[in-house]
Write a structure and sequence with these properties.
This protein has about 150 residues and is an alpha/beta fold. It is built from 5 helices and 5 strands; from the N terminus they run E-H-H-E-H-E-H-E-E-H. The protein has one domain: Dehydroquinase, class II (Rossmann fold). Helix 2 packs parallel to helix 5. The longest helix is centred in the C-terminal third of the chain and has 15 residues.
């Protein structure tokens, strides 16, 4: 039976491909979802890919992931920087928790450099574009196999 994997995306990521393409590129979230789900199936993971612009919804999904004993890949976007309820919900996760950012947040302006989410994450992938999601799926699969 495939292990559950939640891939959760935060605010404004629904506009990938159109939003600030000089930063985020032309790849849409739907394209990232297709690639991520395809790889997850190959690695025997049951991928549940979601996006929200609402903090409370993200908290609900993280609680659901905890109750289902799921691994989590999260691109928290704007929820990264000081969103304590999301951070508290992330601390519930018992399986691998990988934080993904399309851009290198360490090269961004000061308000976008320090992710609170990183304090709860097993690992962080940033600055590699959409391929970061695929690397995160592989990292989850490897961690679950050990």
């Amino acid at each position: 039976m495939p292990h559950p994997l939640f891939v959760l995306n935060g605010s404004n990521l629904n506009l990938l491909g159109r939003r600030e393409p000089h930063l985020y590129g032309a790849t849409t979230l739907a394209e990232i979802q297709q690639r991520t789900e395809r790889l997850a199936v190959e690695l025997d993971l049951a991928c549940d890919f979601r996006q929200t612009n609402h903090e409370g919804v993200m908290v609900d999904w993280l609680q659901e992931a905890f109750l289902k004993d799921a691994a989590v890949i999260i691109n928290p976007a704007g929820f990264s920087f000081g969103c304590v309820p999301v951070f508290d919900a992330l601390k519930l996760i018992q399986r691998p928790l990988i934080e993904v950012h399309i851009t290198n947040i360490h090269k961004r302006p000061e308000p976008h450099r320090h992710s609170l989410v990183s304090l709860a994450a097993t690992g962080v992938i940033c600055g590699l574009g959409p391929v970061g999601y695929l690397l995160a799926v592989r990292a989850v699969a490897d961690a679950l196999a050990t």
